[in-house]
């Protein structure tokens, strides 16, 4: 029997718990399409993630505990809202902290993130999902993650309107289909990598 895949979802909303979050909602809908994956969801803003590009920025920094979950995961889901056409500042901080992974390599010189899959989740009431997913893809690929085909699900509402994804009565058909595709492709690729490139 194949070993269970593990996923870590980093929700980069600006809203601390217990406030509702469209980013987390769509991320959890993605997880619903991964029924056989052991998943953990972390709302990053609930933790003290110190600014910097080191693995551990010292006293009070809670990134090392989150990173430990990331190292154990096969799939990373990075979920962010759209603000001013950009990923959230919380998402940017996560990407900056991941920069430290460039120095963390195995005996073959591979990043410890090698063999892990990453997908993106983007929401917002303005355009920007393609731009944001491009930023996320490049950053995560740079530090060793593999991004599957169609490795993003997103929803953008009409520009200059205040409707959030979580306010919709139903999930739009196109978003639901994209979510399922991203989940399916992530699982397929993660399984291939796990079977062919065992963890260092």
TrEMBL record:
InterPro entries in the cross-refs: Flavoprotein-like_sf, FMN_Rdtase-like_dom
Check the record and name the Gene3D superfamilies matching this protein.
3.40.50.360
Q: Which GO terms describe its molecular function?
A: oxidoreductase activity
Domain spans labelled NADPH-dependent FMN reductase-like:
14-133
What is a single Pfam family found in this protein's UniProt entry? FMN_red
Protein name (Swiss-Prot/TrEMBL) = Flavodoxin family protein
């Amino acid at each position: 029997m194949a070993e269970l895949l593990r996923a870590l979802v980093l929700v980069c909303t600006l809203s601390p718990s217990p406030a509702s979050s469209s980013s987390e909602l769509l991320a959890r809908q993605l997880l619903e399409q991964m029924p056989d994956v052991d998943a953990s969801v972390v709302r990053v803003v609930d933790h003290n993630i110190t600014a910097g590009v080191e693995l551990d920025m010292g006293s009070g920094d809670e990134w090392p505990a989150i990173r430990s979950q990331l190292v154990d995961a096969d799939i990373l889901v990075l979920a962010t809202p759209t603000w001013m056409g950009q990923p959230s500042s919380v998402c940017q901080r996560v990407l900056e902290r991941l920069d430290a992974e460039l120095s963390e390599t195995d005996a073959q010189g591979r990043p410890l993130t090698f063999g892990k899959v990453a997908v993106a989740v983007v929401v917002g009431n303005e355009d920007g999902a393609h731009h944001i997913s491009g930023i996320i893809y490049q950053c995560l690929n740079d530090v060793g993650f593999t991004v599957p085909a169609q490795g993003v699900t997103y929803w953008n509402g009409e520009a200059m309107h205040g409707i959030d994804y979580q306010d919709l009565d139903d999930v739009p058909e196109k978003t639901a289909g994209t979510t399922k595709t991203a989940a399916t492709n992530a699982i397929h690729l993660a399984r291939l990598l796990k079977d062919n490139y065992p963890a260092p």
